[in-house]
Amino acid sequence: MSSRTRTLSRRRFVQLASATAGTLIAAPAVIARAQGVKTIKFGEIQSLTGPSAAYGIRARDGSKMAVDAINEAGGYDDGHGGRFKLEQVAADMANEAKQAVTLLRQFALQSDIVAVLGPTNSVGFAAMVPVASQVNVLVVNNGSGVPIKKPSEWVYRVNPVATAAVPIFLRKVWEKEKFKRLAVIYDQTQDAQAADAQVCRDQKATLGYELVADEAFRAGDQDFSAQISKIK
């Protein structure tokens, strides 16, 4: 398949995915049938090692469970006489933004990969957003809550961003507990946690609590005595 044909196919995939509210299964099935392909293959980039591995492994395994269930049921019927099965190709970004981008570019060179799922890790996701537009690969994110300043038509999320969800969560907790003082401690290397911390700063005037501590640490830190002492 030429690069031009691959680009058109992936752009068509974006249009179809958008029209069907971002579903990962229905849209590529149409493309697969047009290309005479019986297997829909998608890449999955997750942090399978490193500080975010617990999230990445669960996301990868959840996708695999869905793929297995669909395939064991005989595959996906597109309603037009075509039946297709799914194939997941998982890759480890190891909690590194550069590695996530490298993997995305590698998947872009594989003409049989129609989309990329992940990562739940905001470190990798934020770095992948501008690159997805450059290489014309659809990215469907399944976990990151970090705000993105410049969205892309090639990137979709299935979860709300922190700036939309965290203020609601924080207000609900405040309404229940009526707390007057709040301490924040967060991993400054994780964009989503940094965004959550900012929401706590922004909401203190609205909800009327005092932010008594605003402490950061970095992934891999082992000694939190300074932060805990200040909070205490």
Write up this protein.
The chain is an alpha/beta fold and 232 residues long. The chain contains eight helices and eight strands, in the order H-H-E-H-E-E-H-E-H-E-E-H-E-H-E-H. It has a six-stranded mixed sheet with strand order 2-3-1-4-5-6. A two-stranded parallel ribbon has the order 7-8. Strand 2 and strand 3 form a beta hairpin. Helix 1 packs antiparallel against helix 2, helix 4 runs parallel beside helix 5 and helix 6 crosses helix 7. The N and C termini lie far apart (62 Å).
Mind summarizing the main beta sheet?
6 strands, mixed
SSE ordering: HHEHEEHEHEEHEHEH
Tell me the overall shape: elongated
CA(first)-CA(last) distance: 62 Å
Outline the secondary-structure elements.
Blueprint: H1 3-19, H2 26-34, E1 39-46, H3 53-72, E2 76-77, E3 83-92, H4 97-108, E4 113-117, H5 122-135, E5 138-141, E6 155-157, H6 162-177, E7 181-187, H7 191-207, E8 210-217, H8 225-231
Helix pairs in contact: 1-2, 4-5, 6-7
Summary keywords:
single chain; 232 residues; alpha/beta; two-stranded parallel ribbon; 48% helix; disordered N terminus
Gist of the model:
This protein is an alpha/beta fold and 232 residues long. It has helices spanning 3-19, 26-34, 53-72, 97-108, 122-135, 162-177, 191-207, 225-231, and strands spanning 39-46, 76-77, 83-92, 113-117, 138-141, 155-157, 181-187, 210-217. A six-stranded mixed sheet has the order 2-3-1-4-5-6. Strands 7-8 form a two-stranded parallel ribbon.
